[in-house]
Specification:
27% of the residues lie in helices and 19% in strands. The chain has five helices and nine strands. The chain has a five-stranded mixed beta sheet. Strands 1-2 form a two-stranded antiparallel sheet.
Length: 186
């Protein structure tokens, strides 16, 4: 079965998620509309989609990414991460394992939005894993024009981008105005 996916060069859609305090939020700040001021300020956004509290590989990746956060900030890039976990699960995850992660962590990504973004979705293998469907890992880099610059979507927990290579590649992209690749659809 073929699935849809988010296309390189497309505008990243508005996705509503929950913050740690339980309030709703857009996953990223979108482009200005109808003459509104630009609130992105030329910033890039790296969006990490992770499986949830039950995934130790996700926890390690988020910690490693947080360790490199200042290097991404130097490139004018923000990082956010989101899962389908409940607010309670996210709070427990932060308390248990992610207290040193300083970028925003969001929760309650809907299955509908997972599908719309073309993420792979899994069922828990047991009640002890988690209690809901969840997305497999993905990473999307959104440029200051709210376009998808890079996208990597995995079908299981064992594929993640190399953070050092990602950092070098994004530095090259910013410094050389490297174009969006992978846009041929015919």
């Amino acid at each position: 079965m073929l699935t849809t996916k988010i296309d390189a060069g497309s505008t990243f859609p508005d996705v509503t998620v929950k913050q740690m305090d339980g309030s709703e939020s857009s996953l990223i700040v979108g482009p200005p509309k109808n003459g509104e001021p630009d609130t992105r300020g030329g910033r890039w956004t790296i969006v990490v989609f992770y499986r949830g509290k039950h995934c130790p590989i996700c926890t390690r990746f988020l910690k490693d990414l947080s360790s490199a956060q200042n290097e991404f900030k130097a490139l004018n890039m923000d990082i956010v991460a989101v899962s389908g976990d409940s607010n309670e699960q996210l709070q427990e995850h932060v308390e248990d394992s992610l207290s040193e992660v300083s970028f925003p962590l969001f929760c309650e990504l809907s299955v509908e939005d997972m599908k719309r973004l073309g993420l792979y979705i899994s069922e828990p293998v047991s009640d002890t894993e988690t209690d809901h469907k969840f997305s497999e890992p993905a990473l999307v880099v959104i440029n200051p024009d709210s376009q998808v610059q890079l996208v990597e979507i995995a079908s299981g927990p064992f594929m993640r981008p190399n953070i050092g290579l990602l950092l070098k590649g994004l530095k090259y992209t910013v410094e050389n105005n490297y174009p969006i690749r992978g846009t041929v659809t015919e």
